[in-house]
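Minutes, methods subgroup
Present: GH (chair), OT, SY

1. OT presented the first of two proteins processed in the latest run. Sequence and structure tokens recorded below as shown on screen.
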Amino acid sequence: MVGDTLIAVLLLLIDTAIFVAGGVAPQLRPDSSPPAYLVFAVDIAMVAPLVLRRKYPLLVAYAVLLIGALHAALELGLASAIASGIAIYSVVVYVGRKSGAVYLALMITATVVQLFLQHRQDWLVNTVVGVLLMAFCWVLGEFVGARRAYQAEVEARLHLLETERDQAGRIAVAAERSRIARELHDVVAHAVSVIVVQADGASYAIRSDPGLTERALRTISETGRDALCELRRLLDVLRGESESEQPRVPQPTAADLAELAERMRAAGLAVKLTVDADLTALPTGVSLAVYRIVQESLTNALKHAGTGAHAEARVWREGDDLRVCVTDDAAGRARQLTPAPPPEPAGGGNGLIGMRERANVYGGTLDAGPAPGGGWRVAARFPARWQR
């Protein structure tokens, strides 16, 4: 409104200067000049609506049309012609092309009729000049309106891009947190389960079988050290430390399943491992997922199947798919098949959730449930793209 007020004041000063010049040079003033108070009143009424032209463009335009007819009839100056052009421009920019066309037609009609009724000899020239001035204001309004629409579209797209970027960031953070949670669960749950089982066995055999106790304590020590190495590796990744500062520890792969089976046997779980596929040809991500699923399944069997349980892990290739199956016999105790799930690992079943997430990440599927005749069965399928 400050700029529009300045425009209105300048138009008022122009008409005032014209009126004062008519007093100094009477030949410049019309024959029947109105009194000064009427001139100033009409001039103020002519320019005052322009102050609100952005807020009420259509109302201001028609006010300019009505007051401009009186102002032009009294021949008080240039304010009516300039204000009419500003009104056309404002309607096109702030209202729209359709309303601008209607207003322009009314303005041209009013201008032609007024010039014709004044019986001026140069009415045709004035009409052409007035129409060209209005057309110029229309074109200027179209140009500015197009620029404003373009700017609004750019701002909307920028806002959309910022929203999508924020959403993508949230999704990436959630995915990374889920991945870290899976890694931490696989490392900590496996190690702690082995340590707990070995510690319980050592406490029972500490007097009757010192040799067994010594082996259990050795297993606890080795498992704890391995878990600390895994945790340090994860913490190094989270801290973003450079490779030159910290040595990199390779992730376990499906090729390490034999070593995993040996550790589980040392922990007290009889494990039979069968591998009928070239696991070195697996993609890195799928290989890690296979290892973690077998690790979590054997850990659950160690915790829940009971003393004397046997587990079997099979990994084989079926067409272009990789199949994984881990079963346990619940120490020979038959279990009635019911829809109710078996006891979940400590922590609310994060193990099964993590295994399903790992399978889903690589387009695979995972089923877990009671096995016929007792025990527990975990079966996974991966559409592996075998590396040549």
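2. SY then presented the second protein from the same run.
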Amino acid sequence: MGAGNRFNFTIVFFVALGSFTYGFNSAVIGSVLGLPSFLNYFGLNTNGPDPERAGSLTGATNGLFAGGGIIGCLVVPWLLNALGRRLTIQLISFVCVISAAIQVGSVHIAMFLVGRFINGVGVGMMDVSVPIYQSEISPATSRGRMVGSHGFLVVVGYALAGWSGYGCFFITDTVLQWRLCLAFQIIAPLLLLIGSPCMPESPRWLCTKDRNDAAFEILCKLHGSPGDLDNSLARHEYDQICLQTRLEVHRPEGSGWKAVFTKNSFRKRLLLGFFVQCVSQSTGVLVVNNYQIMLYNGLGLENSLPLLLYACYNSWAAFMNFVNTLILDRWGRIRIMLIGMIGCSLSLSGFAAMVAEFSGTSNKIGNGFGVFFLYLFVTFYGGSMDASSYVYCAEIFPTSIRAQGVGVSVSGLFIMTLIYTQAGPVAFKNVGWKYYLVFIIIPWFGAVLMKKFCPETAGLSLEEIDELFGDRTNTEIVTTKEESEKGRSLEDEKLRLGTSGSSTEHHEQV
């Protein structure tokens, strides 16, 4: 199997600007909710005259974004298959730019929520498209690292959203303060839109459209090396992709949504992908992230300090995601995620205990331990779950249903985000720290189910992964063909020997 070259790595990390877009746009709401000018402008201050309205609208900023994300995840598979990976990413980038501009120019909370919803649709589509594209242009030996860059850049987006909020806190112009913070959402998708014509199309998608020559040419660029003058490695991968593509085309169940729900092994993959994303969010990661400023305020931390801690938190998360990408291909996906889920649960248990005991008090030691457990939580999550979950969901589906499979899988992320973050303000108000019990208990059940049902995929090509789910692959076709040819050779030899023996016997009788 070929290895990715410098051009391959460049394209993988460039398209991860879309990953950054998802991360920044998701987390920026946590930053602007920490800016007093934003809360006062839209009347979202919970200490104001109408705290219930403020709380419900605050929840809506996250809920509508997540709802848009669900729609985006379910719509984008059709675009990816009909238009190709590259053109779809270009259209998504345009949507993200326009929706961010609507938020920046908002003069009423309704206008802001509309922009937030459309932006959710855009980043939902982006969160599906980028790992699909990365997985289809990455070699098996380094696919974990390459597709892991999606999760890494997502959290880099979280981190820069935090630092943007912290920096904008010191701007004295109360309108510019929050508008500038939101305007940063435009930069990454605009750069991706401008540079996207230089991206090659996915060779696997090209093969499904019978554009095989173009697919082989792109594979040579992506996985060629100076010492491989005849492109033998790219040729081997190309032959494997073509064989598998033909096999998928001639499957009786077909391709697309019909195949997803009619073939047992496809349904199993769909359930596993959806489960991995749901259990990943059931660690409570986005509840902790999006309401982190409120959590710090509950620990007695005020002014710019919560924004500083929020920025440092996400910067550390980005570093741990980078670590995750380095160990994915060595340790495997499942083992890393199991460690992460248990670690997240234990860390959040410690944080919940600190909140229960010291929230609203001036005990600096107790509050300090509360911050420590939050950082320990993101150490486990960033180092094990973020990148790993995207890599796993992008690689367990065959090319014929990859867009639909990843779309449904990532919709699980947005569904759980919608449920958990929408309920967050009300839950924190009514039951306080007990809300964390949900995210302490569920990961243990998730770990047991993952250990039992999720196969390991590290080191296998996308075509070879089919064997893990009992599907016939091009490897079996080649083996069957070789065995058949060998069998025919043996029959021919027996026939020859039999004919020769009969001739000798006849001669002796004479």
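Chair's summary of item 2: Residues 6-199+251-469 form a domain with the Growth Hormone; Chain: A; fold (CATH 1.20.1250.20).
Next meeting: continue with the remaining queue.
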